[in-house]
Amino acid sequence: MRIFVLVAWCCTWGLATGGEGLAPPEKSLPFSLMDLDGKVHPLDCQGPGEIRVFVFLATECPIANGNIPTLNQLHRELGRTGTAKLFGVVSDPFTTRDEAARHYRDYQTRFPILFDSSRQLCERFQPSHVPEAFVVDATGRLAYRGAIDNAWEAVGKRRQVVTRHYLAEALERLRANQTPNPARTQPVGCPVEYPPLDRPERAVTYHRDIAPVLLFRCAECHREKGTAFDLSGLEQAKLQGKRIATTPCKGPTAATRQCTPFEKSLLQVWLDRGMPPGDTADSPGKAR
After folding, report:
1. Are 18 and 70 in a shared domain?
2. One-character DSSP codes across the chain
3. What is the domain count for the chain?
4. Both 94 and 183 in a single domain?
5. Is position 275 within any domain?
6. What are the tens digits of pLDDT across the range 172-201?
7. Predicted model pTM
8. Residue 143 lies in a domain
9. Which of 69, 72, 123, 203 has its CA 20 to 30 A from that of 53?
10. pLDDT digits (tens, 9 = 90+) for 66-79
11. Are residues 92 and 144 both part of a single domain?
């Protein structure tokens, strides 16, 4: 089984590394991610009273794959109550967007899978294993992190009967305006490791890292026959690379079009490394 290697880039959520403590409120996820069906999800837009669940997965982790039916069922239940949204998250740098789409289609996944191409969401939550669930309550506070249930006592040691459904129990308590108990459990699955920033595993490329940023931040105006210079493809982005990294958006919706510090760092790294195209299998295509 492949070890899942993810890269630490920017500020973290601030979770405790041990014990039961969770982070203080963190109200902003100031970026958008596209799911594997092409729908864009602005993560900084949380509806009133809305609870959000992010479950980190990986295509080559058997325990993560084995939890898909459980998560499908939870997704159906949440759809009936309407109080929470469930997202799967794929941050594995060795899995392309096309591979992930095929995999979760084959597994008949019913909930949206966010493709965390530059690992922004992964860096915010810092999962230690896949699968690992994170619940953000209606105030933006991290209310639960850990295992989906107690089906696995350890890797290779599965219980015959599941007696605790930690994730579902946490959501039930939140709906009742109660604090999840436990608020943190130990996930069982495939470990996630974070190499240093200068490791070659973290190659910033156009199709995986830059195209999503330009799509979410710039495509409304910066397109062919648009109101500003064209950024609709790789060659156009290479021609305008320096302008992208240094020029603030001056469009009518500038507040939502400004790149985050993380996105600016991606653009700068991409420029510094010669603007590599990367694998077209990582391309986000057109958003819907």
Report:
1. yes
2. ---EE----S------SSSS--PPP------EEEBTTS-EEETT---TT-EEEEEEE-TT-HHHHHTHHHHHHHHHHHHHH-SEEEEEEE--TTS-HHHHHHHHHHTT--S-EEE-TT-HHHHHH--SEESEEEEE-TTS-EEEEE-S-SSEEETTEE-SS----HHHHHHHHHHTT---SSSB----SEEEE---TTSTT----IIIIIHHHHHHHTTTTSSTTSSS---SSHHHHHHTHHHHHH----STTHHHHSPPHHHHHHHHHHHHTT-----GGG------
3. 2
4. yes
5. yes
6. 999 999 999 999 999 999 999 755 445 555
7. 0.86
8. yes
9. 203
10. 999 999 999 999 99
11. yes
